[in-house]
């Protein structure tokens, strides 16, 4: 297991990058704790796989260093980093049995045969392939092969880190849930440092101790699922986390009041004067549809019943507003106003969250 340090790390696929826009991975400075489980979350092309490949040694960064337990491994090949990596598509030996595939990393390091047999049995049970141990990998389905690849990545207990690059892409939905649960259990039992790349927020939020959200080649927030939900540090985090994502409204902020389309909204705290594009963000869970004339006027366009709750899609002066109402909550035609739950409003200037006056800085250097 290892603490992983990203020191002034950045990467460009261009030979002579001229500016920040030429970098696929913009400058990063972070410490990832020994034994923690992290998820790299973001849309396609945001730099997740680039960062993972730098950590694994498959890619050399354009600048900066990567350290394992404070030892510089930037120039070290993958084999010397003592990591396991599971890729998006299955990598298995077709001529070997499932048992031989799972045992290969251990046998390659001269492990005791009794330990190899025991560990293979344990991993096979975890991935649900005990009945297939003596079958050749050739001819198995794509998701079965990916389970072998996943198992082989986890069979060693002595690795510095286990890296997963969207490993459940070809796995059926029910098995995805089971494997995520097993991965979490494995992490609790053995305490490996795990880094899991995905664009699926459900995978990230259910797997990780901390989620690292990436946008346009940079880390915009690293935190627990609750922190990402309650206090998105960037508008992208608010949009990307949650279903539906955060509602964002252009506003003018004056002290503790936001002015939006002629409506005055109490922010619950005071803010310094702001410049640039100013917005307020409110989760749909904290928006209430009401008939109270004191609320903000909306036009309800449709109501979607998704079983656990209803999603109300409304229009507020040309901006879509999403509202989540409880399954048992009654809705009526005269409910054409909205209000926000106290303490639920975030304020943003040029996409970055602004803290109320007097708030302390968080570990990423922004105000809490």
UniProtKB/TrEMBL annotation:
Keywords: ATP-binding, Cell membrane, Membrane, Nucleotide-binding, Transport. CDD domains: ABC_Carb_Solutes_like. Residues 4-241 form the ABC transporter domain. It comes from the Bacteria. GO terms for molecular function: ABC-type ferric iron transporter activity; ATP binding; ATP hydrolysis activity. InterPro entries: AAA+_ATPase (IPR003593), ABC_transporter-like_ATP-bd (IPR003439), ABC_transpr_FbpC (IPR015853), ABC_transpr_MalK/UgpC-like (IPR047641), Mo/tungstate-bd_C_term_dom (IPR008995), NA-bd_OB-fold (IPR012340), P-loop_NTPase (IPR027417). GO terms for cellular component: ATP-binding cassette (ABC) transporter complex, substrate-binding subunit-containing. Pfam families: ABC_tran (PF00005). Belongs to the ABC transporter superfamily. This is ABC transporter ATP-binding protein.
């Amino acid at each position: 297991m290892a603490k992983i340090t990203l020191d002034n790390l950045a990467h460009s696929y261009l030979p002579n990058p001229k500016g920040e826009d030429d970098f696929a991975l913009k400058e990063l400075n972070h410490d990832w704790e020994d034994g923690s489980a992290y998820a790299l979350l973001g849309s396609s092309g945001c730099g997740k796989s680039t960062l993972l490949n730098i950590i694994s040694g498959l890619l050399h960064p354009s600048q900066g260093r990567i350290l394992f337990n404070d030892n510089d491994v930037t120039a070290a090949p993958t084999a010397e980093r003592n990591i396991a990596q599971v890729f998006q598509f299955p990598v298995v030996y077709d001529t070997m049995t499932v048992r031989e595939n799972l045992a290969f990393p251990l046998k390659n390091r001269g492990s005791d045969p009794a330990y190899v047999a025991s560990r293979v049995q344990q991993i096979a049970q975890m991935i649900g392939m005990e009945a297939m141990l003596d079958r050749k990998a050739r001819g198995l389905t794509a998701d079965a092969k990916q389970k072998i690849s996943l198992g082989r990545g986890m069979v060693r207990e002595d690795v510095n880190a286990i890296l997963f690059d969207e490993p459940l892409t070809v796995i059926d939905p029910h098995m995805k849930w089971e494997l995520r649960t097993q991965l979490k259990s494995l992490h609790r039992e053995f305490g490996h440092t795990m880094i899991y790349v995905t664009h699926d927020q459900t995978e990230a939020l259910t797997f990780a101790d901390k989620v690292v959200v990436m946008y346009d080649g940079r880390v915009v927030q690293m935190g627990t699922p609750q922190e990402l939900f309650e206090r998105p540090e960037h508008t992208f985090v608010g949009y990307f986390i949650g279903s539906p994502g955060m509602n964002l409204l252009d506003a003018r902020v004056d002290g503790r009041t936001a002015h939006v389309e002629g409506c005055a909204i109490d922010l619950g705290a005071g803010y310094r004067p702001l410049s640039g594009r100013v917005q307020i963000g409110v989760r749909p869970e904290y928006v209430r549809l009401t008939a109270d004339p004191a609320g903000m006027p909306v036009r309800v366009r449709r109501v979607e019943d998704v079983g656990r709750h209803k999603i109300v899609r409304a229009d507020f002066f040309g901006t879509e507003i999403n509202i989540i109402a409880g399954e048992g909550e009654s809705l009526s035609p005269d409910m054409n106003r909205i209000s926000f739950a106290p303490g639920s409003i975030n304020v943003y200037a040029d996409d970055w969250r602004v803290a109320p006056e007097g708030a302390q800085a968080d570990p990423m250097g922004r105000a809490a």
